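This follows on from our talk about sequence and fold. Go ahead and set the record down below:
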Amino acid sequence: MNSCNECGRHQCDCEVMMLDQYGTEIVPGEEYILNNFDEVIHKDNVIRYLIEDGSHQLKTR
């Protein structure tokens, strides 16, 4: 599982967590999706990720 670049933990209180190669920022209270490559994707970006890489199989956390 990818982790926060600021503190190294997956779940943390840091203001911004960059979790994947697309630069997804984790914002408290928002919903995220974890795909089969353990990349965290914001629910609003799912369409973009599916277009960029059709091999991504998305699943809810």
User: Anything to note?
Assistant: Confidence is low (pLDDT under 50) at residues 14-18, 47-51, 56-61. Residues 6 and 14 are 7 Å apart (CA to CA). DSSP finds one helix and three strands in the chain. Strands lie at 32-35, 40-42, 58-60.
